[in-house]
Design a protein that fits this description.
two-stranded antiparallel ribbon; 77% helix; mainly alpha; 15 helices
Amino acid sequence: MVRISDKLIEVFMVDKPNPIDWRRLLAFSKEWNTIRPHFFERCQERADKEDDPGMKHKLLRLGRKLKEVDEDVQRHNELLQVVKNAPSKIGDIVARRRKDFTKEFFMHLHAVAESYHDNEVEQNAIAKLGNTCLAAVQAYDTATESIEAINAAELKFQDIINSPSVDAACRKIDNLAEKNQLDSALVLMITKAWSAAKETNMMKDEVKDILYHLYMTARGNLQRLMPKEVRIVKYLLTIEDPERLLCALKDAFTPGDELEGKDFDNLYTTPEKLHTWIKAVVNAYHFSREGTLIKEARDLMNPKIIQQMEQMEKLIRDNFM
């Protein structure tokens, strides 16, 4: 093992000095478990005999750093074995050990899959397992974010409700909007409170009136936080007559004073910007891609509206570009 260890020392120090490469080499190696103890012993042995202080430092550093990488790889292999043994319980495993499903783990899993270049069945099985783990992690993170958002919205809602007056409560909503903290979870909470209030006879009219004012204030602020292209498109989608739609598009592309109100907006943009935005939404629908832009338009993502938007996109392209 001395010769093999010396050869590996040269590889790790000279040919592949980057720790990222070390991770890959260890993942590929089928003999590393056997070589490991001899390798670290040899690093220490050579460092003890070395007269050159610089080389002694390099050998000791290699042994220390590679041991850190090796411990990471062992943890990744242990986790990989756990999910291999219980593929139907990956969701539960992620819930218990989310912090272990790191970027480095998935890089390791990819390297392990690549190491089976001569065994397509095993390579595909590991790749599939990796995809399942990634989907479970994304689902867990989404659920966690939702819970955190609901908890944060609950605190904001209670603070608003406990305001000394309706005006004070509305000002709090306006302030949240100005700070970009008026999220959809809070607006949904206010909306549900108002909906429940107006459907019951068990609540006083004054309370209903307060909740109505809060609802209208929140809705108005949320509307104004939307990119103006979203608001323009949502208005255009209400127009069914082709000639009226063409006129409305001309108005939307005519520069002028922009007015923003609770019930009426007078906004304008360019044909290029609106066309680009509509195309992004349509592509996201057809190819299941989502991004920051599309988050503002999730309520548009249904077949009937997408069909209208595709027609609108063609209308803009044919008449204004």
